[in-house]
Structure formats: C-alpha cells, structure tokens
Amino acid sequence: MSEVVFTRENGWLPRVIRADGGLWLQLGAGADANHDPRTFAFPVSAAHLAVIRDDLVRHLLLWSAVLPLCAAAGTRGPLDESAAVALLDPILLGPPDDVESLFRRIPWDRRQLVAQGADIDLLERGEVFAALRSATAASDWQRVHKYDADRDRARRGVRLTPLDAALLQYTGRYLHGGRVPTREPDAVDPDLLPEVMRVIATAEQACAGMRLSPERRGGRDSGWKRIEQKVDRAVRRAHPNLTDDAVRTVSFLMCSEAAARARRS
Q1: In what order do the strands lie in the sheet with 3-6?
Q2: How many CB atoms lie within 10 A of CB 12?
Q3: Distances in whole angstroms, Cα of residue 103 to Cα of each of 62, 66, 97, 238, 261
Q4: Spatial distance between the Cα atoms of 40 and 73, rounded to a whole number of angstroms
Q5: Model confidence over 175-185: pLDDT tens digits?
Q6: Using one digit for the tens of pLDDT, what is the confidence trace for 78-90?
Q7: pTM here?
Q8: Of 130, 134, 14, residue with least CA distance to 69
C-alpha cells in the first residue's frame, strides 16, 4: 500500500508517495504497448520533498529532466533509477547557476515547460529559472502546438509577419498546415482583421466566376490549378510582403471553397 504525501492540482506533475517505508517520487509518463501512460517511481528524501512542495519552479525543472529518462525506458523497460536519483540534489538543492549549467548538459523536455507557461525566449537561451517565473502548475498544450508550429517554420527559414500569422489563423492553418482551410474570423486579432479581409477580398476578386468541373470535384484538376495560380498572382501583386505560407493558405481557401460549391452543384 502507498500513501500520497504531496501532489499538485495538476495530477500529471510528479507526486510524492510513501511506500515500503520510504518516500518515492511517482509520475505517469511514456507509454506502454497499448499507448497508455506508464507509471515510474524512484526514491527521494525528506529534503527533496520539502523543495518539491515549496518550489514549483524546481518541481517543474525536475519533471522536465526526468521525462526523457521515462521515454528512454520504452514500452516495457525499467527506469534508469540511478540516473533519476542523480538529478535530485543538483536540481532541487543546487544553486540556480549550477542548475542552469546542468540543463546545458542533460536532455530535458522543453515542450513540457512551454506547456507550463515558460517564457520561450528565455528558455531558448537556457535561462530556465527566469523562464519559469511565469510558470503555473496547469498545462496549456495549445501553447505547445503553437510553439511546435513556430519551430517548424523556423527550421524552414520562414519568419511570419503579424499579417502572415493572422491569415493562417483566419484559415485555421496556423497550428496544422495540413488541414483544409476554413474561415475563422474570431481567431484573428480584431486590429488585424480588416487587413486580413482586404487580402481575402483580393483573392475572391481574382477568382470570381471561376468554377471547378463537377465531374472532377473530388480531385485537383486543371480548374483547381487555374484558380490557384490566378489567386496566387493577384495576392502577390497586391500584397508583395506576404510569405509563401500565407499566400498558399489563401489560394488553398479559394480552391477548397470552389470545390465545395462544385460538390453542391
């Protein structure tokens, strides 16, 4: 039998339990063969418990450092307990400068800290304590999806302007570029919405009266290509500072709406 000694409102954060006459840090992480989270535990001391209870930042840092060990255990393997225990004193009891030095040498789950509200710029610079001043125990995975999307664009060398981002938000494709575009004006900053609508109006005027063949409505035929090319040219001419991502999402919106009209005909 085990007894929960300390837990936070967010049940995914590691909790401290008492079992077998000692204190253990227990967390759900990784996944088994059925894709369900696995449960891991390793021993901690009363001094560690005191810090975990009183210092959310260090609790979160420990969590982010232990998660890669859980992932390394795979679907059935054991946790590297000695490696997990070796993290306790440096992260929970060490001076902040030493903790940040440690985080430059070990793997840690950056996305989890983003989910907890960490300042991304500070996190990227390795200033983990400063980054977590804004952190909370509650997780925000929508923030992580945005972080992932921004990192993917950065890897491709894409830097969005506010208008680019607003167009991707309007079409519902900021986070997931593979989805069919829609019109979501409520997702856009009201100050940017008029400018977004001017771009959309340019696209609508460019393809006004163009139709897709009902016989080819399920695929991208030459009609789709003509709409795509005409919208692309018009939008780039009227709004030359837009990125390729923004122009493509607008032309995709026009084409997909034309396809929807063809399906209804």
Answers
A1: 3-6, 15-19, 22-29, 38-44
A2: 15
A3: 10, 12, 10, 47, 54
A4: 10
A5: 987 889 999 99
A6: 999 999 999 999 9
A7: 0.82
A8: 14
